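By convention, the token line describes the chain's fold. To illustrate:
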Amino acid sequence: MKLRVAVILFLIISSVSLQAQTKAPQIVTALDPYDQALIGDHVTLTLSLEVPESTYVMWPVQIDTFTNFDILEVSNIDSLESEGTLRITQAIILSAYDSGIFLVAPLPFEFYKTGQDTLRVRTAALALQVNTVAIDTSAPLKAIKPPIEVPISFAEIWPWLIAGLLIIGIIALAIYLMKRQASKVSTPNTAVAQIPPHMLAMRKLDELENKKLWQQDRIKEYYSRLSEITREYIENRYRILALESTTDEILSNLKHELISIDDMEKLEKVLRLSDLVKFAKVKPLPDEHSASLVQMREFVRSTIPVIVQRKEEEVADV
């Protein structure tokens, strides 16, 4: 008799224990606010469940869409173990932008425990009424409020002040450097400035002869330098832009000056021969090299201003 009672008690306890082990986990879902909200309000959906520690839980993988709701934020899954029980929670922030009664769709969960079949459970659907903002149509219309003027703080101004000071400093520095450079340009070497054009030209012709360029077969360099000296002399002597003019333009401008026909022919011969060497790659004879230099010297001597020439003669007599 006692054995039968013991067996019956064992079966009852085993049955209760088995039912406790196979009992479906309870999933709690809640909305905050729970039943009503205004358009655009943030509504928090909280998912919470408790299972034994040895239970594996398959959480919904993709919580990214709810009909009639926009998902604003999904929190991380938070778990807490206590006395053999695992509590898992997650919060989802929703918002609706239309009015009406909307359902938060059920979410699927799966539970697995060693030696038992997989258990699939869905959360309960939750209804939420979304209301529009109440408008009192009987109230008179109010004027639109003007924009609120916010005073400008120093923190907003100081970057512009610094930028302005930097720009002013750069401009001042540029003006200073330009004036300094201009002062250097406007005060040339007085020793060079006092040399008459014909003396300067003669000195440069002597330097060209001493370099012996054409003797070293540097024909083009020789005639380029001879043409440059000639043009510099004409520019300084007659105040025309000879360095920037063609040979024809120089000869045309000199027609109005008191220059003899013989001297004009010498000048033209030197300039045109120099052009042929520089641009047409003509190679004159050796006699023409020295003759061009002689002709240029004769042209310079013949075109010395009368006043300067008289002063030089007076100094020579003394």
About this structure: The chain is about 45% helix and 20% strand. The first helix runs from residue 2 to 22.
